[in-house]
């Protein structure tokens, strides 16, 4: 690799490269060499900006969690429009169609990464716990609007939806069809929907 080449926003380039490698090659293909090769830079660039590869991966995971903010805002703004099951189906498709599914095994597979993430994220798997918060917030907004029951346990429904959707999307080689996902969502929320 050439050295001395100026890179703009190195962190973003490296994170984007890590995402591409992770999605294409999975956990075993995600190495510092693969990331820097994908980013088109020398291996030393990564180590100049991060203490080690696990520090890089921790920042990568947190960056990808932060990228969920626009999806969260869009879902929250959809409260009161369309139908609840459709809104949730679309949100879960967007969430699990992203790098989120690949990040979960990355975090569970690497002990040092989990230890570093605990400094900023004390409980749970970052992407999944953030997704639960996003879904719970949306369900609470729908409850406030009267579209789901006032006594709906949104803090139980949200992890049920996320966990079940994660199981459907866990096989990255076969994305579930929208009908299957919608049927799952409809079943989970059937007792609380008041539309």
TrEMBL record:
Keywords: DNA-binding, Transcription, Transcription regulation
DNA-binding interval(s): 31-50
UniProt domain HTH tetR-type: residue ranges: 8-68
Molecular function GO terms recorded: DNA-binding transcription factor activity; transcription cis-regulatory region binding
Pfam families the record matches: TetR_N
Classification via Gene3D superfamilies: Tetracycline Repressor, domain 2
Domain of life assignment: Bacteria
InterPro entries reported in the protein's UniProt record: Homeodomain-like_sf, HTH-type_TetR-like_transc_reg, HTH_TetR
Record protein name field: Transcriptional regulator, TetR family
Biological classification of the source: Bacteria, Bacillati, Actinomycetota, Actinomycetes, Pseudonocardiales
